[in-house]
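Can anyone check this?
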Amino acid sequence: MTEKRVAITGLGVVTAAGIGLEGLWAAVLEGRSCIKTLERIKPGKFACTLAGEVEGFSARKFVPKSYRKSVKLMARDIELAIGAADLAFRDAGITTIGIDGEVDIESRRLGCNIGAGLISCDLEELGLAAVTAMVDGKFDLKAWGETGIENLTPLWLLKYLPNMLSCHVTIIHGAKGPSNCITCADASGQMGVGESSLYIKRGSADVVVTGGAESKVTPVDINRQLKMKRLTLTKNETPETAMRPFDADASGSVIGEAGGLLILEEMDRATTRGAKVYAEVAGFGGACAPNGQDITTPNAGNLSHAVRNAIKNAGLAESDIDAIFAYGMSHPAEDACEAAEWKAVFGDALGTIPACSINGTTGQMFAGGGAVQLCIAAKAVSVGTLPATANFQSPAAGVELNLSNQSRTVDMKNVVVASFGTGGQSGAVVLRKVDA
């Protein structure tokens, strides 16, 4: 029996470059950074005052009118996922119960798998409740348990559970097929796409909405990243130059928020209905290299193993890869670790394979990162243009990736797209060009 093939037919992104794929695609082609000074929250005394924020965004614009009240129960991460899902379905030309028109996907054949991160609570909301449990100027746990916690809305916790990204998307769009939530930090997009492709190959679903979303533009997350010494402290006056993947002048990362969702579809179904196919999901691989208690130790998550697995799973050899979509956190030590992993896979040929990183444009998007990266890679494969790497001028020591701050025309039959998170997990996906 011939194995089912998996097509990418829809792309939905919400990033600092704007709402929708077009704005981000234009920015990455230009090698333009969208990093700015923090606006949604006051930077206060933070040593890094920069972020890749999504401006003018609300999930209210992406849900049916009957569902708008539920937006009050959504953390920013959930809202980003909902916006990206709506954009992805519309791009694929698939009408669900959440989109006006005649529904053309059977609910039990529609799956969902959305990556999420550690969702931070709204400090203002929590703080207003916490002050009601103060006794003699100190926070009192007994008072909190007896009366203070009652000052939170009864459904408060539902705003911060990682599975709620998938939960809301499945409710809005009527997805009753396989559903899951993966929490593997920046590798969540690759892990979600990998698992979702298996839903289709096993015949459990015909269509799956998958990817990831996260917003760490919160006081808690910014403080956490600063304590981990991950953010740049020297670029506050020049935000557009701050995020510099693999560059000799990289001084640290910048937080970016994003949602990136893809529509995966069984290939025969896609071609029968005349869908636009960006690329085929040809192979997937995952790996990890746990740091134990010390997550601050530079670690690329055994990325070379994930990449090799993805290439092998696609039935290819390393020499068949035409382009590399590297991650690039702009953190010198981690960029060096990642570069070494790519070198371990491709050896001396590494410098001859065109490569790029999109994080210089968006900032580090965490659980949304690998997914947005995959969206851009699918678009790049379909049009034969490799994006620029924003702010890349000269390679940092040990970096042999073939990067450029200019977009390039590349015949991409097979590409590998990989990312990793600080917890030591990595994922890689091979995308294949589909002939028109």
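Reply from J.R.: I decoded it. The chain has a mean pLDDT of 95.
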